[in-house]
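haha ok so turns out i had the wrong file open the whole time. this is the CORRECT one, sorry everyone. sequence first:
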Amino acid sequence: MAEKDSGGESGLLDSFRKLALTLTGVLQTRLGIFATELEEAKLQLSQLLLLGLVALFCLGLGIVLLAVFFVVLFWDSYRLAVLGVMAGFFLGMGIFAVLALRAKAAENTKMFSATLAELAKDREQLK
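then structure:
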């Protein structure tokens, strides 16, 4: 009878080991998905930042040159009016950009959706 108990304990211990191995594998897979999504998000953010900076630089330089062009064009007759209109236009566009930026920042984006979906599947299977 003692032999039967040790066989039962061994089977239970093997079951716990298999369960631990399975849980470790699931956790490793989920962490791998999370790391991949994090890397993709980091890469996308760096690309967006670089492209945004290049676009801002080029647009800023173009706007300054355009403003100088209009001031020089109307230098003899309406230079103060042109400067006022250009300043108002740029301030208006700046305010619009700030409001658009605030609205975009307030949007709720779902990061790591694949990881969360896989964890939800795991949770449902465990129930």
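The chain is about 90% helix and 0% strand.
again sry for the mixup
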